[in-house]
Amino acid sequence: MSTGQAAIDEALTHGDPQDVTESVKMIVAQEIAAVNSELRIQRTEYFNHSYIPDLVTWWGPNDADHREVFLRFDSADRSLALDIERLSRDHPMFFSLRPHRVEESSPEVAEALSQHRRVMVTEASALKELSGSEPGSFESLVSTSVVRAGRGLVDKEQATRARMDTQGSIKAALLGDEPRTRAAVATTRAILADAASQEIGKYLQMLWLAGGGELDAYPGDRDVGLVAGAQDVERLVRLVLSSEVVDSVGFWRRLGSMVTLEVLENLESVELLPNLQHLVNANVSRLFVSYAAVSEHEPRLTSVQSPFSWLVVDSRLCLDGPEWTIAFADDGRHFSGVSKDRQLPTIEEVNRRAWEFLIEAVELDDENLLVTVEPKDPDGLRFHGAIGGLSGVSGLPTLVRSLTVRNGVAIEVEYDRLIANTRQHKIPLPQLADVAVALMTDSDEIEGLKLRRLLGLGSDGGLLFGE
Questions:
Q1: Is 220 in contact with 114 (CB distance < 8 Å)?
Q2: 249-256 and 230-241 are packed helices; what angle lies between their axes, rounded to 10 degrees?
Q3: Which residues pair with 17 in a beta bridge?
Q4: Residues 432, 459 contacting (CB under 8 angstroms)
Q5: Which residues pair with 400 in a beta bridge?
Q6: Least confident range of 103-112, 245-254, 318-327
Q7: Residue-wise pLDDT tens digits, 332-390
Q8: Most distant CA pair in the chain: distance in Å?
């Protein structure tokens, strides 16, 4: 089946008016969806009506936002100017069923569009051009915004220019490339309504500053980025993570100053992307957590240099190792569904793992007895080597249900759920990760050293760098 303008031309030749209506609307809906697949598109029962739309696009939570789409046979028809005047209040899109011809442009239509800056006139060839943007790229962000908030005449020539001017804009902004950034700013202003243009300009400015550029040198509105909120940061992070790889630690540190654990959790799911590794590794000491849950998996091949990777799975930041994954959170409700069915380790196993930690308490368990053992030292910190000796005490259980150690704060390890928690105290992620890996996995010494290097920890588990 043909698509775009050719499909529309073919549909208009059908003899049955009802067939024409249904075919044309289906094609136009497909063209719009090809640019922005997140829209819900509703077709009405009318065709080329004066004031009732042919289609309505919906988006946002519970379809909170919408845009009406009116089909018109020719964008050069001066009567379109009257339609723009009459319907401008709802910032509609007018879709021309015939391609725009510059030599036949209507001055009246151009004047009406200049007066009503939230109305757009477009065509199939323009949407076809916009739909070719690389998913996740800056030009894709601009393209998807056009069907929601485009303005003015967006024909094939305008759409092509928009794609060319916005390609590589992320890299241009973070490198301080003034001409290319200026072109991207100018293009978004030309084809997007003010609010959408300012939103995208905000991302460019944030990238410019994260790249080390000076605000005074930014070639756009210098105030828009100053009011960036958490949602702006989240959307920018999504954009950057899926862009080409950026290996500048300075960039990731500056961007990371705006990124919280909540921002990463709101990403919901992020696969093993190089830019996610750069972002988390450069800012891991800035992320504060209270819980770490270990899940084991089959051994898999990993990099010789670093066997660890960062992921976002089910709205949780995760550290993936050769035979385990650790999910982090600052709220225990993330792990409320974890059942207490893990096999408990023996005293000997825990002693091998915990020999370098300062122990506060050990909870021993078997089918008949639950015993909590604490040190006599009032500081509760001098219990080295005593765990192993407990295995020889007659009558004591030999399985460990929980262990509480001190690593800046008290950290309790629940072996029946493989969860470590700080009892609501938020600490830098590296400190909790170090304890979780040491006490809840069978990582060897070399693996442990590589992990501490990744987390910016010294051999004693202390942070080598901070704010």
A1: no
A2: 150
A3: none
A4: no
A5: 364
A6: 103-112
A7: 888 988 988 899 999 888 988 888 888 888 999 887 788 887 877 666 555 556 666 77
A8: 99
Summarised one tens digit per residue, pLDDT across range 46-65 is 887 778 999 999 998 888 89
Where does 229-387 show beta strands of DSSP type E?
A: 288-289, 291-296, 309-313, 316-320, 324-329, 358-365, 370-373
Predicted pLDDT at 1: 42
Q: Specify the residue for token string 């300012």.
A: 198
List of residues 6+ apart from 180 with CB closer than 8 A: 168, 169, 172
Q: How far apart are CA 222 and CA 215, in angstroms?
A: 7
User: What six digits make up the tokens of 172?
Assistant: 């241009």
**CA dist 260 → 237, 256, 288 (Å):** 11, 8, 8
Query: Domains in the chain, start-ordered, CATH in brackets?
Result: 4-167 (3.40.91), 317-455 (no CATH)
Q: What is the DSSP string of 60-127?
A: SGGG-EEEEEEEES-TT-THHHHHHHHHGGG--EEEESS---GGG--HHHHHHHHH-TT-EEEEHHHH
The C-alpha torsion from 401 through 404 and 405 to 408, rounded to 10°, is 140
Q: 221: pLDDT confidence band, cut at 50, 70 and 90?
A: confident
